[in-house]
Design brief:
The protein folds into 3 domains: 3-73, SH3 type barrels; 78-105, no CATH class; 110-164. The chain is 32% helix and 21% strand. The protein has helices spanning 3-9, 30-37, 82-95, 117-120, 139-158, and strands spanning 16-21, 38-44, 48-53, 56-64, 68-73. Strands 4-3-2-1-5 form a 5-stranded antiparallel β-sheet. It is extended, with a radius of gyration of 25 Å. The protein starts with a helix and ends in a 6-residue tail after the last helix.
Length: 164
Amino acid sequence: MKPRTLEHLQYFIGKVCSIVATSMNRSFDEKISREHFVVIVREIDIDGIWGTHPYNSDLVSFFSLDHVISIHQEEVIDPTDPEHIGMIKEFEQVTGKKAQGDLKNSPAIPEKKELLNILKEKPPVPSSPSTGDSMFVDIESLERLAEDTRRAFDSYDSFDLRKP
């Protein structure tokens, strides 16, 4: 590949793109093709294209440039954006079919930098007995630990992974 081509390919970094690759011994239906060949491009170099899944940045894909036929930027439609709502309605009127998004049943994975607040808190450390060698249970510390654990689970359960 020529250096100038590689330079122009940098345009796609950070964009949602479809990668068309040479054929393989595996057939995919339309939905699975989108799952495997649509990525957010993270890096392009002389070896190939690195990308992550559009709604799960923990799923990484690599496409060797030797097998890449083309790369296409995709239009990302947000069903909450008023302009995009118009586009969706127009599509439905033209086709007579209800538009269904690819991501409707797939939870969005938050960026790794977004931590639940509860994870930043440190659980209480049970205090040790100040006198005597006998073993005992510090009920107050256990109650605080149980309460912090309950709050952690409640906070995790209330954190909606489907929100972008």
